[in-house]
Design brief:
The structure is a homodimer. The first copy, chain A, has a 6-stranded mixed β-sheet, with helices on one face. A 6-stranded antiparallel β-sheet of chain A has the order 8-10-7-11-9-12, with helices on both faces. Chain A has about 290 residues and is an alpha+beta fold. Chain A folds into 2 domains: about 140 residues, 2-Layer Sandwich (60s Ribosomal Protein L30, Chain: A); about 140 residues, PurM-like C-terminal domain (Phosphoribosyl-aminoimidazole Synthetase, Chain A, domain 2, Alpha-Beta Complex). Chain A contains 7 helices and 12 strands. Helix content of chain A is about 30%, strand content about 25%. Chains A and B meet through helix 1, strand 3, strand 4, helix 3 and strand 5 of A and helix 1, strand 3, strand 4, helix 3 and strand 5 of B.
Chain lengths: ~290, ~290
């Protein structure tokens, strides 16, 4: 059996096979970031993402945006847990023949994002590699009361999404601002039951929430915010790499949120959480999960 | 200018250029692991290493040893700070055509090392990649009083090294036990002024200590423990990837250490720390730094 017959999600799960975590692990593999024992009031958040040339970016896009993306995707993960990023370590694999200007631009991209989000760059490893590979590991923290997991969605919750979805390959996937400010506003002022960032695509990521929460959902297709870069509805819910937030919260709270939302970032109520899991029907403007 | 004209160390330093770390960073880029504010009595330690197929290992060596190495090199870094490893996240880039057995063996190697050293595997990322790439990020902690930096070597310190050096390419570089138990014994029972693990080669790594500490050293060439796999003295001090510990401590303490050393692991006093930096002479059985 080969890797491609298995799929990415199953491959990660295989690592956790037969592992019993110690009591200091609050949540391990299976959320946007690991949740770890820390101080009396706070948890540590720990996440890591690898970007590979040819798969996640082309060399012709230049180093700067690649650097930005490598740190931003991790910030997006910390944001989706309700937390604040703090410390990053960078591993960089580069061909020895690569122009130093490319790496300098890449580092500048990382530094600019780090400065904006007050992240300390505290470590690095550089190795020779045929293709460019960047791995960023990010450590953050979250007040215990503000932690949001994928698994907390409740029946009747309203489902919200930030921004507009789809067509991110036209540029947004490399050049986006992680929704950290929005996420912190949400967890500090509202009762958010579950949250995830849109990396695999709205439907796929919403399904992660629903599976973890053992719930179903009804999505109002007409309410899904479609980016002008998306081809159509399908593209909006499937393309992925939007790095927007999907979250669920009690409907009454949701109505308050819509009134108080202080950001320019678009906010859309796109559906509700139901009791049972159903198959996707796609008919009549609703999508069932 | 190309990467190969610059060298690995300068490339890492470029990342830190123009960066001001916040007060929560005790020590950033430039030691075996970053040292970060944590609790009243303890610091966090944060480190990351990337292994690339063809550079750090051959696919024909099998997945198991590669998995072991990927976690062990990071444990070695935490050990060299005097700390204890706790949480690891794994990023894995693999060709989609790779046999699943290879990945299963690799994961088993990681799990076996994690179990032995009581490390929780708390996260993972898997991506498609032409060559196999593994990045492990490791989080640990150290009691403030037990932290050892590279920069603490003092004039008159005795220099010690564990194990035997050189020829690690014949097998040890893939199959070694990080000196965590030894390091913890050292920091809990003795006054260790500086420590590093031997990854680049004894002379290169000792020089990291001396540069950070602004000191020189005299190495007794005949006291350097040469592995039976090393070609000669030069190979022993230059090959690297030994993953032994080099450390310095007051000479009187050193004499006590030699008497009380409870491990089968060899312990050798190989030189002393001097006031001034000098050039390597290599003559008459001494090497000056």
């Amino acid at each position: 059996m080969r890797i491609k017959d298995l799929g990415e999600f199953s491959l990660i799960k295989r690592l956790a096979k037969d592992i019993k975590s110690s009591a200091r692990v609050i949540a391990g593999i299976g959320d946007d970031a690991a949740v770890l024992r820390h101080t009396r009031d706070k948890y540590l958040l720990f996440t890591s993402d690898m970007l590979v040339e040819g798969k996640h970016f082309r060399k012709t896009s230049g180093g700067y945006l690649v650097g930005k993306k490598s740190l931003s995707v991790n910030i997006s993960d910390i944001a989706a847990m309700g937390g604040v990023p703090m410390f990053a370590v960078i591993s960089l694999g580069v061909p020895p023949s690569l122009d130093l200007k490319y790496v300098d631009a890449l580092y500048k991209g990382i530094r600019d994002v780090a400065r904006r989000f007050r992240i300390d760059l505290v470590g690095g490893d550089t190795v020779a590699s045929e293709k460019i590979v960047i791995n960023v590991s990010l450590l953050g923290e979250v007040e215990k009361k503000n932690l949001v997991l994928r698994s907390g969605a409740k029946q009747g919750d309203a489902i919200f999404v930030t921004g507009a979805l789809g067509g991110s390959l036209k540029g947004k996937h490399l050049d986006f601002i992680p929704r950290l400010e929005e996420a912190r506003f949400l967890v500090k002022n509202f009762n958010i039951n579950s949250m995830i960032d849109v990396s695999d695509g709205l439907f796929s990521d919403l399904d992660h929430i629903l599976k973890s929460s053992r719930k179903g959902a009804l999505v109002y297709e007409k309410a899904v915010p479609i980016s002008k870069h998306a081809k159509d509805f399908k593209s909006a819910v499937r393309d992925g790499e939007d790095f927007e937030l999907v979250f669920t919260m009690p409907r009454a709270e949701g109505r308050k949120l819509v009134k108080k939302w202080p950001f320019k970032t678009r906010l859309s109520e796109i559906g509700k959480v139901c009791k049972d899991r159903r198959k996707i029907t796609g008919a009549r403007g609703y999508t069932h999960f």
